[in-house]
Amino acid sequence: MSQIHKRTTITAALPYANGPVHIGHLAGVYVPSDIYARYLRIKGEDVAFICGSDEHGVAITLRARKEGKTPQQIVDQYHEQIKKSFEDFGITFDIYHRTSAKIHHETASEIFKTLHEKREFVEKTSKQYFDEKERQFLADRYIMGTCPNCSFDEAYGDQCERCGSTLSPSELKNPKSMLSGEPPILKETTHWYLPLDKYEPWLKQYILEDHQEWKPNVYGQCKSWIDNGLQPRPITRDLDWGIPVPVEGGEGKVLYVWFDAPIGYISATKEWARKEGKNWEDYWKKDDTRLLHFVGKDNIVFHCIIFPSILHAEGSYIVPENVPANEFLNLENDKISTSRNWAVWLHEYLEEFPEKQDVLRYVLTANAPETKDNDFTWKDFQTRNNSELVAIFGNFVNRAVVLTHKYYDGKVPESGLLNAIDEKVLVEAKAIPNKIEAALDKFKFREALSQLLELARIGNKYLAETEPWKLIKTDEDRVKTIMNVSLQIVASLGVFASPFLPNTTKKLTEMLGMEVGDWEEAKQFDLLTDNQQIEKTSLLFEKIEDEQIQKQVQKLMDTKESNQVEEESQIAAIKDEINYDDFMKMDMRVGEVKSAVHVEKSNKLLKMTVDIGVDTRTILSGIAKHFTAEEMVGKKVVVLANLAPRKIMGVESQGMLLFAENADGKLISVSPDTSGENGSGVS
């Protein structure tokens, strides 16, 4: 239930520091949280907007293992890249921290020890998967097997990325270790557990009774978990990367990342408050503070049930008033996947669409997956830019400013008496800010954005109906009034747009010679003074051409093609029977790899120059996860030489290399004896 608050602590989910940020992250968490933080600030509220890199957990160690680096090297690399992407995109965190910081280790350890001393934890010995070859217990993400729900054979021990089901390793069929590829054994280990069942009565009151106003997708997921009965949840893990368990018996164990990560909000607030001369406890322990968590749907349970239970058990912290989580954003009707490189990466977008951060903010907000999954397409991106931002918002501002310079040397004309048309348009315009507020206060960002565009439509329609360019010769006083009203709408539009389109607002307010100003003042539509000088117009938005969009679509198609190449290189079941004549059509020859490099912007493809005796040709193969470029140079290979060329990621591949797949899913090169001469036939 809402209560009067003096300040708001806004947290945005901590991104894993194991890869760059993509548009799914932006749409789900960072754009809406930034809009809301900017909205509260412009209304004069006390806000702490907190985020940082999540630098512990198995996702980090998996990336480190894959890249042949240490976990610390991985988090250092991606923390800086993610931080820069957010800065470039204008996300206005008060602090972007990291969970590897000393203050975070201290804070998480203190909370663990407090709960331990209060005897809130349960110690349990259980059997968990253990890799005998690697001599270590396996975290859930180190286990892969067949999903019991959709039969996807590459589901992780904690979640199936195909159907989205939350899993436990014991539910997987045919589990295997991702470290050695061997089936793991079960071995006893002791861990500390958070007894969620103990907090179930409190959670029922806190969520099911007191927060029925939560978004239906959030409330529904929480209700499902609670109705099914909560179970104790382990909060420690057998790992060597993370925060060491700070009590006796914790040797060789670390705090489970889902326990440690949300505490990162608190440690980040401590660091921010220290630098700003504030009291961090005001933002986490005062009853007149409102705590809001912006997360994606895969984090709902952690932020609505588990983290609040930790805070409740500790006893001195406030708990979230709302968790306005979004669902997932798909890309061109396919689920965004980092492993398949099916994504629009933020750092690449900023390179290919410079100065167009606001266009992406606009489109992602307009298509926000607020209560169900939604889809981003490049065609819709183009249409919304050209038909809405350019043709409505930008057009209205441009017409008003151009006419002012044409008729009044760029000075705001003094308004005369308003007639019925002017009164009507101002009544319509003045109704819009309240509608924007009402939508934002309920975290309905799509609705708020549509109302903002409606204000620009009202201005455009007003100019079209009054036609000042026709009246200027016969009724200049009337034109002065029309232009004054139009410019006042433009000025207020700049204020109301500022949470959504910050870069555009900066251009617009500089053009008008004004500050962004106060939200309440802007609702009066009287921000500009008579004879105030405004600059000549500069286009706020520009059309995006078909060629630009086709380039982005083609890039995705190239990615899909490279994924198919990799899939084709892995042999599963026996394919349909062929006859001898079909086999004889294949021209397989011995070749030698002369050079090999990674294909830019692909984590799967190697581009190789292969000498097959009769010629030297370029061949692309999706084997980069199994072989380094250096390993392939000098290797004898078998080449299917008469395969029709195909273009992959802009490069023509002139053949195919033969590989076999072993039981562990690893590729093995089908290689001739080293004495085989290049060009020798294989039969």
Keywords:
OB fold (Dihydrolipoamide Acetyltransferase, E2P), 683 residues, six-stranded antiparallel β-sheet, 20 helices, Rossmann fold, 3 domains, alpha+beta, Isoleucyl-tRNA Synthetase, Domain 1, four-stranded parallel β-sheet
Describe the model:
With 683 residues, this protein is of the alpha+beta class. It folds into three domains: 237 residues, HUPs (Rossmann fold, 3-Layer(aba) Sandwich), CATH 3.40.50.620; 146 residues, Orthogonal Bundle (Isoleucyl-tRNA Synthetase, Domain 1), CATH 1.10.730.10; 114 residues, Nucleic acid-binding proteins (OB fold (Dihydrolipoamide Acetyltransferase, E2P)). It is built from 20 helices and 26 strands. α2 packs across α3, α4 packs across α7 and α10 crosses α11. It is flat and about 95 Å long. About 1% of the residues have low confidence.
List the helices and strands and how they pair.
Elements: E1 7-12, H1 23-42, E2 46-53, H2 58-67, H3 71-89, E3 95-98, H4 102-117, E4 122-131, E5 136-137, E6 143-146, E7 155-156, E8 173-177, E9 185-194, H5 200-209, H6 216-227, E10 233-234, E11 236-237, E12 254-255, H7 257-276, E13 289-294, H8 300-314, E14 329-331, E15 334-335, H9 346-352, H10 357-366, E16 374-376, H11 378-408, H12 420-441, H13 445-466, H14 468-471, H15 476-497, H16 502-512, H17 519-522, H18 546-568, H19 580-584, E17 588-598, E18 606-611, E19 616-621, H20 629-632, E20 636-640, E21 646-648, E22 651-653, E23 656-657, E24 659-661, E25 667-669, E26 681-682
Parallel strand pairs: 1-2, 1-13, 2-3, 14-16
Antiparallel strand pairs: 4-5, 4-9, 6-7, 6-8, 9-10, 11-12, 14-15, 17-18, 17-20, 17-26, 18-19, 20-23, 21-22, 24-25
Helix pairs in contact: 2-3, 4-7, 5-6, 6-8, 7-8, 10-11, 11-13, 11-15, 12-13, 12-15, 13-15, 15-16
